[in-house]
Amino acid sequence: MPANNTAPAPQASSSAPLSLDPDNFADYQNTLFEALMDTTRATQFLNPAELDFYKASSPGFDSRLQNAGDRILVLCNKLIAHAADSSASGRRALAKRDAAGFGNDEDLVERFDEVVDVVDNLLEMADVNLDEVTGRLLKTAPKLPPTQSAMVLQVASRSGGPRSSVNVIHSANIQRPQLHFEDRIDNSNRPFVRRITHKPNAKRPLDYGLPGSDDISPEMRSHLETLRISDVASSQYSLPHPYEYEIQNIDYPKHMFAIRPEQLYDTMDKTPFTWVDTEEKLNELAKILDGVNEIAIDLEVGNSG
Length: 305
Description:
By secondary structure, the chain is mainly alpha-helical. Helix content is 37%, strand content 3%. It has helices spanning 25-43, 51-57, 61-84, 88-95, 105-110, 112-134, 218-226, 244-248, 279-290, and strands at 151-155, 164-168. The protein has a two-stranded antiparallel ribbon. Mean pLDDT is 72; it is low at 1-14 and 144-159. One of its GO terms (cellular component) is nucleolus. It holds the Pfam family PMC2NT.
């Protein structure tokens, strides 16, 4: 058997491991990165498809590989447990596992999403803390999810020069507009209840499908009464969309399918503009819009500041 078919064994570091403390953190960090790079380079020689061959051709390779895998698994369990203890969401992810942690590599692969939950939480916490240190996120600002914090993107220069940093602010110190809505947003897991009291442009009344409606069969009315559903307010079950019938039986106007020649917009100098700032001008605009079948609205917002 040629000697070059055997994967080289990783060389252990001869230097004693450093203890982590504030005085030698830089040295500890460099040593840690060097160990990670050595491990990464060593794994490049191991093809998973050839592991069985290496185990059969190299005495002791199987036992050393199993021993290294067990040590790495123990380290992973310790890291996940330590990270999970730092936050409530991490503890919830950790609670999914048994007391012994991940038992083997297959167990870790099958439940890898739990590891992702803990790591994601660590990254979010680091993002928020970095924003507080750099001043992007004020400590007195409203408490928002970590995903609402500032984010820094590295943008490459077209001329080949150094990259520049661009701050992308995700409402770091701004309250969400929906907090000021008169109708509070309800995202709870409860049955859908209609809030509207009247139904414009209706083909069926608002009580369509309820016991008080004339549009259901006697059998269905009896069934709904058995469920104690007499109107919208008494329903303990999700009601259909109030415009369900109109949506399912929509009749599109013929002018929507007519092919018309393209009409391009004019230049700014040739386009007349009217600033609508009074109720009278708004009523005039409404009359104009009532007489057309199609309108074009430019929703693009440009901000050079």
